[in-house]
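Hi W.,

Here's what went into the run:
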Amino acid sequence: MAGCKTYATERLSAFVDGELPAGEAAAVRAHASGCPDCTASIDGLRALVTNARALDVPEPPPTLWPSIEGELERRERFAWLKISPWRPFGIGALAGAVAVAVVLVALPAVYTRRNGPPAASPGAEVVAAAGAAATDPLLHEAEAEFAQAAAAYERSIEKLRALLAREEARWSPHERSRMAERIGRLDDAIARSRELARRSPGDSAGNEQLFAAYQEKIAFLAAAVHRGGEAGDWDKPGGGGQ
Amino acid sequence: MAAGRGLTVAALSAALASAAGARPVRAAADGGETVTDRREIIVPAKAAEVVRIDNLLGRVSVRGVARPGEIHIFAEKHASTQDALGRLRVHYTAFESGEVVVDTRVELGGRERSLPLAGSGVDLVIDVPPDVAVEAKTFGGDVSASGLRSGAKLETTGGRIGVSDVHGGVVTRQLRGGQRVAAVEGDVDLDGVEGDMDLRNLGGGRVDARVVDGTIRAEDVHSGFVRLVTTTGQIVLLGVLRPGGHYDLRSYAGDVRILTTGETPAFELRARSARPIETDVPLRASRREGDWLRAEYVGRRPQPHTRTALLEVSSVLAGVTLQIQPRATPAELH
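Here's what came out:
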């Protein structure tokens, strides 16, 4: 955000994580739609989160993530009771990125402390385990469950797109162009998340990221449909939430 | 683990698979055999302030009925084979910070993962002290909370959501399945994509419910701010309007119906509808501002110091109905 000082990086980060109140999130969206600096910052933050999640890491023991998450959230415990905006599965994306980094640092130490130095390289063990899991019928069951949910999200998006097409006919070419641009960015995020999930079968976090991307698009389309009924003012302040 | 970081843990990091009293049984289900394993464990949780439950493998029901300092976990695992059953795990972890985590996992390739399965699963009934806050997440299983006094946050992808008798904030997130929320004293924030929402007897300061494809029916909502938004379904608001309340009711493609009962306060109306607005309310000062109709209702017995409510009602493709009834006839509203 080299040029624009309207929103501090922390606020934009919170926006990317879906942690801003609905009103403030809508204001950020509205501002970013006309501010190349903030749009670039938001895209950069999203890319950071996406890249962090793309790292190949061994799955931690089941108690490790709750430990980290509990520590991360200790100071803000119960904050969600004050009515927070959509926060998929209670894990902020940026917090997830931080956690990945922490896991990368912490895992070798944990393993060493518990088991002593590994006889073979940890990477080899992970590859072997992944190979065994890839052929497991339970993994295919899980992937089928995720695929069904993704299909349900896609159906909802298609319904909203059909409704939006009715409203778009009343918009100016400029408004239609901006809408197409915004939807294109959301589609890019979905495509990136889908690819990450595909590359990490059996990783629920990857699918959660994909579902979060779907949810963001659905919320945007629903808001656009509702506010599009008011003469094409889908991107006015307050139009970012459903 | 991680004692150096002061995280705690561990005191009771217990895999329930090792608990005593396992009784694998076989039962007929859906034309096939199912192997079932039921277990119960009572764990001390004297400092518990929040209980987080993460079960992508099945249902979760949380009840605020346990004695202070105790959490009861009833876990039922089911699978088509003994081998699959043995790969389902339930973990309980208590943190010194007051957080308790219950999560389920399936063993795949030598590692435990949090994943949804179609043919196997774990259903949890968890009794907690009423004063702990609860967060619960499922994937395809129903999730419910009752008897809680510090609020609840419930998330599911494909299960139904049920909330009853809860004090404190209630937050829900759902892809599909429908939601029933009743008897809540606290702010309510509901979000869904597909499925109807049924809200009854809500008494917090704010009710905010959003769904894309579903009907929202709200009865006896006493909150000062009520926002109900659906894209393709109907909105039905039934009950008493609160003096000074703000009601924002919007459907894009469905009808919006308000049937007030009792002593309806004065209100200012902003309404938009594809069809003429149906109403038996003696509105006055009606005027149009673009697509919107603005009007006022002064009440049957105008009182100068009573605060005026605001009704913002919109149906872009369907109709708006506004009626005052001495007593509602709920059967007509379905």
